[in-house]
């Protein structure tokens, strides 16, 4: 038994910001950003929330699967940028889409969040607790980045992606691998709210995202090929059998480095980071939805999802579409 993705959806804010526009905010250029990252633009919220984007993506995933919201049994939202500490984003989505019969909660594994949520969904279905699930990755990272830091504000974009998946007897997800390394947490970090109460001196430190870009780069290029090979090995799949590798859309050079290490040709690594930037936990389901809606996926195809992010965390899964 496993779970199979039956529908996909995604949502982006209305405002698209090109590199040239960022060059008016910080000392950078379109040429530098494209050359170092491959990113040409990103979408930035001017009012859309993590919950509203997730709800839109989930509704579209249900529509694509031909399912009604009332049939959904579990909603998982992966996010590291929720509007509220309570209620959780998944409960807000449940209300928004009218999925009153679903259990709903959030999960945070930063940019690997969607993969960790999908694995959680798989475990729930495999154990027989639920039969179907909506899994979303949704972020409005634009409220966490320092818009004066050219090293980070050029990378991230806002958006959401979602899948509707259900129990299946054949095909579906074949294997999963996850890793976490809390000892390297400082490589990419952000503070929610610093400690503040009448008994301590207030911290003056800003609470923006802080990142060691080079460390993350080398972590991704070294660790992700190994993680993918581990997931492929567990499912008895050869690199050559994979139709598409859907990797976390952080940086074109990272993706090219991973494809070289795997000795897999670049055409099997679709990208949309040129248009949407790094949307953290939303990036894999956003890309998946794009491929699905363009008719590039056929049932029976073998796909690999792989991602990495703050934590440090990383994961990969092998599935039959
Ligand atoms: N525009 C112009 N110059 C910039 C710049 C920008 N947006 N950002 C940094 N620079 C400058 C630096 O200040 C530095 O200048 P210096 O040599 O005078 O000190 C120079 O460019 C090189 O900086 P460096 O950080 O070494 O560049 P890099 O080649 O490592 O590229 C990243 C920086 C962030 C693009 C790259 O490290 C990266 O993509 N890392 C992965 C980050 C990531 O994916 N994070 C999310 C993980 S989920």
Quick summary:
This protein has 321 residues and is an alpha/beta fold. It contains nine helices and 13 strands. The radius of gyration is 19 Å and the shape is globular.
Kindly list the characteristics that best describe this protein.
321 residues, binds coenzyme A, 4-stranded mixed sheet, alpha/beta, 5-stranded mixed sheet, 31% helix, 9 helices
Would you mind describing this structure in some detail?
About 30% of the residues lie in helices and about 25% in strands. Strand 12 (about 300-310) and strand 13 form a beta hairpin. The longest helix has 23 residues, at about 215-235. It has helices spanning about 20, 30-35, 50-65, 90-95, 115-125, 215-235, 250-260, 275, 285-295, and strands at about 1-10, 15-20, 40-45, 75-80, 105, 130-140, 160-170, 170-180, 190, 210, 245, 300-310, 315-320. The protein starts with a strand and ends with a strand. It has 9 helices and 13 strands. With about 325 residues, it is of the alpha/beta class. Coenzyme A binds near residues 111, 151, 211, 251 and 309. Coenzyme A binds near residues 32, 36 and 216.
